[in-house]
Write a structure and sequence with these properties.
162 residues; alpha/beta; Rossmann fold; globular; binds S-adenosylmethionine
């Protein structure tokens, strides 16, 4: 698989999984958390497909496209190792959808980071809430669910609190 193929598979999978999870959690009330703003493409997509829930973005350094930059009161600035525990204290277990795309090109580093943040994300999800992640997560109490049509196995993962 070329790097272009890998990139396309990642983008296609993100869109398929976000569309699926946004719809599956659509009846729930509670915030949506975007972990890792980057250029802001997936944040922009979430804004397009989720109109009735607040979307908070976690990012350590904002460098997004101007169209895809959250307002100050929806931005949670800092390292997620610090801001996720603070958000749990602030919001409780109310997140209806968490999307994480925090990794870079080093797969070993991404996996180690996913192991570190899994226990920070796990208690944030409301019942019925879902997490979409670009990396495999390590949860005790969330169920991994099958990917929707159009998503490429290994490029995206979906978990749900039953
Ligand atoms: C791959 S980019 C996200 C791309 C985004 N999904 C998009 O569609 O444009 C990853 C982002 O995660 C952020 N990030 C990585 N580690 C972080 C950490 N420990 N705390 C907060 N943000 C972090 C990086 O600064 C970067 O902006």
């Amino acid at each position: 698989m070329s790097r272009l193929d890998v990139f396309i598979a990642r983008m296609t999978s993100q869109r398929a999984c976000l569309n699926f999870a946004a719809q599956a959690t659509g009846a729930l009330k509670g915030p949506v958390f975007e972990l890792g703003l980057g250029n802001g493409r997936t944040y922009h997509h979430l804004k397009e497909i989720i109109r009735t829930r607040d979307i908070y973005v976690f990012e350590r350094a904002v460098a997004s496209h101007p169209d895809s930059t959250p307002p100050d009161d929806r931005l949670i600035l800092g390292d997620v190792n610090d801001t996720l525990p603070a958000a749990l204290a602030r919001f409780g277990a109310t997140a209806t959808l968490v999307h994480a795309d925090l990794g870079g090109h080093n797969l070993e580093k991404n996996d180690a980071f996913a192991r570190t943040i899994s226990p920070l994300v796990e208690p944030m999800l409301a019942h019925g809430g879902m997490m979409v992640s670009s990396d495999r997560m390590y949860f005790d109490s969330l169920t991994e669910i099958p990917l929707p049509e159009g998503a490429v196995p290994g490029r995206c993962f979906i978990y749900r609190r039953d």
